[in-house]
Structures
1.
Amino acid sequence: MSPPVATETLPSTAMPTKATNGSNGHVKVTDNVKVLEDLADKWDTFKFDHIRESQVSRAMTRRYFQDLDTYAESDIVIVGAGSCGLSTAYVLGKARPDLKIAIIEASVSPGGGAWLGGQLFSAMVMRKPADAFLSELGVPYEDEGNYVVVKHAALFTSTLLSRVLGFPNIKLFNATAVEDLITRPSTSNDGKIRIAGVVTNWTLVTMHHDDQSCMDPNTINAPLVISTTGHDGPFGAFSVKRLVSMQQIDKLGGMRGLDMNTAEDAIVKRTREVVPGLIVGGMELSEVDGANRMGPTFGAMALSGVKAAEEALKLFER
Ligand code: 48N
């Protein structure tokens, strides 16, 4: 497929500023052991530096609105910060620090279904060879032969999230929902469309369009959207459902019954560009393809994210 073509002239977009107090854009962790020692036993005279409330307000709003401006034109938008979306973001952030990547997550807390294993149990199972991704992230695990176990799913998700948020070219907009897709006529003039960005709103606003009218959305232009919105939840399988309602695909295949071996191979292998400008990965893909579900094993989510990133990188080859 030819690389994404921006048919309209794009406004020049400043690259995200690098963190000022760290080398290569990562904030340097100060050595705080000394600071804590200095505080011990001096609590009676302890005092924070003085602040005016407006300083806090300006520190937050100045950055947020700068981010909205910077990422209004993004190179890639990832919809859904679950295990697949975050894995995609990690691979892209590491491979292409020159690309501006916006992650839109409807929930206040990113991570999707990966904070726990199955049935609210803590441990997370990943079948080999997904252990390679855990090693890449530095997540410790117990090796059980054909699979590995992370002692708590939150250890995987929090580590992955911290790596992703550490990239200066990635911005997470959480508590923000994608409530539509930006489209353009496809270059082949066949009545089909190309995806060219996302339509966003505060999630709480999106959930109340029925009881409060005229709450128009915002937008992010991007030549490529990667949708990993999962198979359930209030907004699950968002983009593929929207493709059906826009008559771009006939109907959803509907997720099939649980079969770990069939499901995980299929999800990874089929992660792909479903329509021009839209790559779908993770469990959202099971809804469009009618793939089986795998239940409480997460290797396919991580490797579907790796595959989605590789598909995206092909489109942005320098
Ligand atoms: O964790 P999920 O739901 O999705 P994946 O595909 O990253 O991981 C799926 C995985 O957790 C499983 O379902 C496991 C393997 N079980 C399988 C099985 O057989 O049951 O994350 C999707 C994220 C969530 O955080 C949603 O809040 C978010 O996407 N989201 C959205 N964010 C913004 N705009 C939207 N329209 C939207 N829809 C969903």
Note: The pocket of 48N is lined by residues 79-85, 104-107, 112-114, 177-178, 228-231, 233, 235-236, 238, 258, 282-284, 293-295, 298, 301 (CB under 6 Å).
2.
Amino acid sequence: MIQLMHVSKKYGRNYALDNINLTIQQGEFVYVVGPSGAGKSTLIKLLYRQTLPTKGRIRINKFDLTRLKARQIPFLRRELGIVFQDFKLLPRLTAYENIAYAMEVTEKNPRLIRSRVMDVLSLVGLSSKSRRFPDELSGGEQQRVAIARAIVNRPSVVIADEPTGNLDPATSLEIIKIFEHINQQNTTVIMATHNNEIVDQRPQRVVEIVDGRLRRDESKGAYKNAA
Ligand code: ADP
Ligand code: ADP
């Protein structure tokens, strides 16, 4: 379970987030929507402890992020998979190696690494392209590798910041279906997105942030409020 309690984040005198209260149960799929500058990325960065709130508390599973010591951050991150708009793959490693590298940090058994990497490559439909380098893959394929890397350590939560921001509509839909598949295995998915077509086509819980405030929270919401 994820809980934000009275969370505010200030940059200088400006509130990027202002008194956010939010609870997300294990296995939920949540879109975080809102205009540019609303505070979506700030919320995502708080969740993976890239930044700390100015006020309030954040809990993810057994971790109290506001009390977490620096040396405990890796233990939190092991329970999280993170996906970015620009993929952030290592350019000199193949698809396979990008994924294995994420695992080798935590796991030493080479046979287990090999079978898990092949499993996640298959899940994202890229078994045949394991030897390609990032610049030999399309944008959609690179994002699939990034998703495979995010899930290879079997996180309880996958966090994505505009994962379809660089992708065309058809490719975006394929990427969302992969997130839905991951979600069906009881992994929580939290996705900040501007992609109104996807949100309207694949309804899930919608949390809307405007000017740093929680404006709307609907269990099967649309991108825009009908009202
Ligand atoms: P979104 O992801 O919804 O576009 P952000 O979370 O990136 O919004 O930004 C929310 C607000 O906080 C914006 O006004 C932005 O300019 C400001 N902001 C974000 N990050 C920083 C930072 N590191 N330093 C100063 N201001 C920031
Ligand atoms: P990203 O560009 O990936 O969102 P960060 O938000 O961490 O990265 O910001 C990178 C650097 O740019 C930081 O030093 C941050 O203070 C600064 N920065 C980011 N957004 C703003 C902003 N809206 N106003 C002022 N500084 C910002």
Note: Residues 11, 16, 34, 36-42 surround adenosine-5'-diphosphate (ligand 1) (CB under 6 Å).
